[in-house]
Amino acid sequence: MTTGSTRSVVPATRHPKRRDPRIPIEGEHDEKVARVRLGSYEFKKKGVSRFDLRDPYHLAVALTWPQFLAALLALYLSVNVVFAALFWLVPGSVANARPDSFADAFFFSIETLATVGYGEMYPATLYGHVVASAEIVCGLGFTAILTGLTFVRFSRPRAKLVFAANPVVAMHNGKPTLMVRIGNGLAGVLADAAAKLNVLLSETSAEGKLFYRAQERLERAHIPIFPLFWTLMHVLDERSPLHGYDAARAIEADARVFLTLEARDPTLATLVHEIRTCAPADIRVGMRYTEAVTIAKDGTPVLDLTRIGALEPDVGDRQEPGWTEREEEG
Predict the structure, then answer these.
(1) What's the pLDDT score for residue 251?
(2) Which residues of the chain fall below pLDDT 50?
(3) By CB distance 3.0 to 4.6 Å, which of 228, 231, 267, 268 could disulfide with 322?
């Protein structure tokens, strides 16, 4: 387990005449702020734009499907409005279009952008041919980019892991143990699964509030095959930053648990990963997970994913399913 603390840094003296005007300072109205959510945990980043147009690929992939479709529709309509205005501003550039009819110019722009010609309206002048040619090129590029982005969004691998809603602290081998149960929601198995559990503590010292990021030691941080479920365990002994904490103290220190899990999907031959966070109020002390696996008549284990987060009172030092004893260090 490694722990570290954030040191307070005294900023260097700023000279107004030498300050880079591209770097905003505290209080400027044009300062960019991005709001980031990680489960129930939320933080902000200053100097970073939520929608950075300099990285359109990452922006298009990070958007939700409603946002992506809305942005696509807005871009499509904007392109057609621009080219329709070019046709409309020069009467006679489109044959058989009604004079001063923006609707005709707009629908002709849609047909041209899609490279679909119905024959009734067509470019009638050199200006019309030039604008139509430019729009056809834009239409080909628009279709190619749209196809690529849509494919990336559909083909992005997903872990499909089912996390228990509440971590628990229960007795195991006579020691309080923090446990988090995770189920494999895929129809197949996952391989080479590796997990990390970190806690972010907030404590008040003489210098003010400091944030400590401590890496937890799991009883087993790697399993070669992940077919059903996995119970992550961390013993709250003297080496744990949560040693001696109860529910009230954990809430007071805002002790948030961060989980990261990475595994290989043999079907897709690629890595999948998942990140989850749990607030201190989510931790259930004195509870443990109920049995989620039953045995069929033919001896086949049956996992009920709907019971991954089911809890019951901790009534004894019962062996927790998914437990693996601590590996001896080499």
Answers:
(1) 81
(2) 1-28, 319-330
(3) 231
Give Cβ neighbours of residue 159 (< 8 Å, ≥ 6 apart). Answer: 190, 261, 263, 272, 273, 274
Entry pTM: 0.67
Q: Give the end of a domain, one of 130, 155, 180.
A: 155
**What residues pair up with 198 in beta bridges, in sequence order?**
215, 258
Alpha carbon distance 93, 71 (integer Å)? 30
Place of tokens 């907030």: 202
- Specify the residue for token string 């005449």: 17
Same domain, 244 and 176: yes
Are 94 and 149 part of one and the same domain? yes
Would you say residue 202 lies in a domain? yes
Q: Give yes or no: residues 81 and 123 share one domain.
A: yes
301-320 confidence digits (pLDDT tens): 999 999 999 999 987 655 44
pLDDT digits 0-9 by tens, 135-188: 999 999 999 988 998 898 888 888 889 999 999 999 888 888 899 999 999 988
**Phi, psi for residue 19 in degrees, rounded to 5:** -70, 135
Torsion of the alpha carbons at 19, 21, 24 and 26, rounded to the nearest 10 = 50
Count of structural domains, the chain: 2
DSSP annotation string for 64-83: -HHHHHHHHHHHHHHHHHHH
